[in-house]
Design brief:
Layout (H helix, E strand, L loop, with lengths): L2 E2 L11 E3 L12 E4 L5 E5 L4 E3 L6 H11 L11 E9 L12 E9 L4 E3 L7 H4 L4 H17 L10 H19 L9 H14 L8 H20 L7 H12 L10 H14 L3 H12 L6 H57 L1
Parallel strand pairs: 1-2, 5-6
Antiparallel strand pairs: 2-3, 3-4, 4-5, 6-7, 7-8
Length: 350
C-alpha cells in the first residue's frame, strides 16, 4: 500500500518511494515515505524498522545501523515493527565533533494496535493480557505513532469501528450531561465527525493516507481523554464523585481582614452603587469551567455580546437624556433671557 515504483504503473498512490526512483542517496531496501503534511520518514520492510532520521546522509545511516543492530529484530513477528529514536549527543550537522549516540526504541504491534517502549508488553501473546489502564496507554502510543507515520501501512481495520463507538458515546454524554459534559467534543462537533467517519468508510478512501492520519489523530484524542478520566479504574460511585470534585470550583483560601472588607464594601456599595459586585458575579459565573473549554468560550462570547448590547443601550439612553436636558436647558435659558429683557424694559419705563 502507498508504495509507488517506476516499474509498477498499476498503483496510483505516491506516498512512498524506493531507492530505484532517481534518489542515489537512498540506501538499498529503504523506502522514503511522505506524510500528508509533507514531511518524510524512512521505512525498511525487510528489517521492519522505521526512523525519522535522514538516512540519506552516510553518517546518519551508520548511526541508525548501529542502533538497530542492538535490537532483537528477529523476534518481531508479522505485523510488528520498531521505531528507532536515534539521537546523537552532538549535532548531526557536525559529525566530526564527536560520536556519542543514544537511542530508545518504540515497538509497534499493528495486529493489536498497541505500542510500547517495553518489547515484551506488545508481543502477540501479551497484548491481550494488558489491563485497561496500560492498554489505553499503549493504544495512545500506537495512534500517536501512526499519526506521524501513516504512509507505509494500511489503515487498521478496527479504526473506523473504534472511532464510531467513541463518537456515539460522546454524542450520548452531550445529550445526558449537557453543558456539564466532559467529553472532548461538543454535540455539533460529534455530528460533523460522525459524518466524516462515514465518508472515510467508503471504498474510495480505502487507500487514503489522509484517512489514516485523521483516524489516528481522533483515536489518540480519545485515548488521552480516557486517560484523564481514569478509564477502567473507578467504580460508578467513585467515578461520579471524581467528576463532581473536578466540576466544583475551588474556594479562595485567603480572605482580607473584616475592617478592610467593610471599607471595600462601603466604597463599592455607596460610591459605585454596587456595580463591581454585579460585574464580579457575572465574571465568576462566566469563567466557571464545566468540563469543556468550548463551553467557557461560548459563555464568554455571550457575556461580551451582552455587555456590548447593554453598553449600546446605555449610550442610547445617555444621548436621549443629553438631548432632553439640552432642550430643557435651552428652553430655560430662553425663558431666563426673556425674563431679564422684560425686567430691563420695565426698569427703563419707570
Amino acid at each position: 500500500r502507498s508504495c509507488y515504483k517506476l516499474t509498477s504503473f498499476a498503483f496510483a498512490s505516491d506516498g512512498c518511494f524506493t531507492s530505484s526512483q532517481q534518489d542515489p542517496f537512498l540506501a538499498d531496501d529503504w523506502t522514503l515515505c511522505v506524510h500528508s503534511q509533507g514531511w518524510i520518514y524512512f521505512y525498511n520492510p525487510s528489517l521492519k524498522v522505521v526512523t525519522d532520521q535522514d538516512i540519506r546522509r552516510p553518517e546518519v545511516l551508520e548511526m541508525t545501523e548501529n542502533s538497530y543492530s542492538q535490537y532483537p529484530l528477529s523476534e518481531l513477528s508479522d505485523g510488528m515493527e520498531v521505531h528507532l529514536h536515534v539521537q546523537s549527543r552532538i549535532s548531526l550537522r557536525k559529525p566530526e565533533s564527536g560520536n556519542g549516540i543514544s537511542s530508545f526504541n518504540l515497538t509497534i504491534n499493528h495486529n493489536h494496535c498497541t505500542a510500547s517502549y517495553d518489547f515484551d508488553e506488545v508481543q502477540d501473546n501479551n497484548s491481550t493480557l494488558l489491563g485497561p489502564k496500560r492498554l489505553n496507554r499503549c493504544r495512545r502510543l500506537y495512534w500517536n505513532y501512526l499519526w506521524n507515520h501513516p504512509a507505509h501501512v494500511p489503515t487498521p481495520s478496527r479504526a473506523i469501528e473504534d472511532a464510531s463507538d467513541a463518537l456515539t458515546w460522546f454524542y450520548t454524554d452531550n445529550l445526558i450531561s449537557g453543558t456539564r459534559s466532559t467529553v472532548p467534543f461538543s454535540k455539533s462537533e460529534c455530528e460533523e465527525l460522525s459524518r466524516m467517519v462515514r465518508e472515510l468508510a467508503l471504498s474510495c478512501n480505502e487507500k487514503s493516507i489522509a484517512k489514516t492520519v485523521f483516524l489516528a489523530w481522533f483515536l489518540r484524542e480519545v485515548c488521552s481523554y480516557r486517560d484523564a478520566e481514569n478509564w477502567g479504574q473507578l467504580t460508578q460511585r467513585e467515578s461520579q464523585a471524581d467528576r463532581k470534585q473536578k466540576l466544583t470550583p475551588n474556594q479562595p483560601s485567603h480572605h482580607p481582614p473584616p475592617i478592610i472588607l467593610a471599607i471595600i464594601n462601603f466604597i463599592v456599595n455607596v460610591l459605585f452603587f454596587g456595580i463591581p459586585h454585579t460585574y464580579r458575579a457575572h465574571v465568576k459565573i462566566t469563567s466557571e469551567y464545566r468540563g469543556r473549554l468550548s463551553s467557557v468560550q461560548k459563555t464568554w462570547q455571550d457575556y461580551i455580546e451582552r455587555l456590548v448590547r447593554e453598553y449600546s443601550h446605555f449610550l442610547l439612553i445617555v444621548n436621549s437624556l443629553v438631548c432632553y436636558l439640552g432642550k430643557v436647558l435651552t428652553s430655560f435659558g430662553s425663558r431666563l433671557c426673556s425674563s431679564r429683557e422684560f425686567i430691563t424694559r420695565f426698569d427703563l419705563q419707570n
